[in-house]
Specification:
This protein has helices at residues 4-14, 49-68; strands at 21-26, 29-34, 41-42, 46-47, 75-83, 93-102, 106-115, 123-130. It is of the alpha+beta class. The strands form 2 sheets. A 6-stranded antiparallel beta sheet has the order 1-2-6-7-8-5.
Length: 138
Amino acid sequence: MPTKAEIVDFLAREFPQSNCIVEEVGDRSATVSHPIGPAQLRPGDTVSGPLLMAVADVALYVAILGTIGLVPLAVTTSLTINFLRKPSARNPIVGVCRLMKVGRILVVGEVALYSDRKEDMVAHAVGTYSIPPNRTGQ
């Protein structure tokens, strides 16, 4: 399986627009973070929903890459998010992913989103990825 450094290099090459930071990659798990600045805020000094969804999606993808290899054509087929409380406008958003099912065709995972590792989740997401039949990473 790819190392954290290999996943970071892959993401930088394939998704240069992403500002997510890969913090940890484990067995069926990953932790990523995203810094917060004025571009990520909505009125009322709250972090935008699309940013929270992006962090959840990247955390899922990184966990998948760390579990099945560098599969560029794995794609999100479903992402459901529940916004639980207002994140801080000053802390990075941290997504902690755990894959619940790793199948041949589908991978399902959940992501707990935190405002810089505060105790209470700010959002919870569940997502499904479709894995292409010809895995280039294996």
